[in-house]
Amino acid sequence: EMMTEQIATIHAPEYIDLLPRTRGRSFVQLDPDTATSSLSYDAALLAAGGTIEAADYILAAPDRNAFALVRPPGHHAERAQAKGFCLFNNAAIAAAHLIRRRGLRRVLIADWDVHHGNGTQQAFYSRPDVLFFSTHRSPFYPGGGSWDEIGEGEGRGFNVNVPLSAGKTDGDYLFIYRHILGPIAAAFEPEFII
Fold first, then answer.
1. Which candidate, 9, 99, 112, 143, has a CA 20 to 30 Å from the CA of 86?
2. Are 104 and 96 in contact (CB under 8 A)?
3. Cis ω on the peptide bond leading into residue 163 (within 30° of 0)?
4. What is the pLDDT of residues 10-63, one digit of tens each?
């Protein structure tokens, strides 16, 4: 019940109700890329919970770091739709947990996956308390993630996309993180980075 409440900070009630119905079923197709097996829902709960646990572990002693090596992944999962092999948006759920349950005011999510984190962007697009920064190949799945997607309303300026052509190197990423993300993060002053 507590886990469902935390997931509901990011996902729609009807979507949260749909996923448990996949439990015990050998195959359910949720979108062209995303299907579940009999234990996918349980794995998704563990992934979201494990990411929250990692955040709390770090928060308890700020000299710590953690890496939540979880499946299914999360950044394509939208409010009411599974996408790109993702069921729950683990990073977004952990960020919402840090704000709602732990009282943080500014969380930075830096997403360096080759694909744009459309679900994470959607979750915080109109909020100023989570800065979403994404480097990703473009054009590429799932589409979107262009430079001009900067947030809306109170969230305007708190969504930063760096679409990249194929073939970028570690040096390119280091440059981007130092010269684009670095100054943005310094201005935002995050209390936590995911």
1. 99
2. no
3. no
4. 999 999 999 999 999 999 999 999 999 999 999 999 999 999 999 999 999 989
Q: Which helix (H) or strand (E) holds 177?
A: none
Joined tokens for residue 4? 């469902």
pLDDT tens digits along 132-147: 999 999 999 999 999 9
CA dihedral 8, 14, 17, 18 (to 10 degrees): -120
**What's the per-residue H, E or C state across 6-31?**
HHCCCCCHHHHHHHHHHCCCCCEECC
Give the CB-side neighbour count of residue 18, counting CA atoms within 13 A.
16
Cβ neighbours, 10 Å, residue 189: 10
Count CB-CB contacts under 10 A for residue 8: 14
Residues marked active site are found at: 76
pTM: 0.97
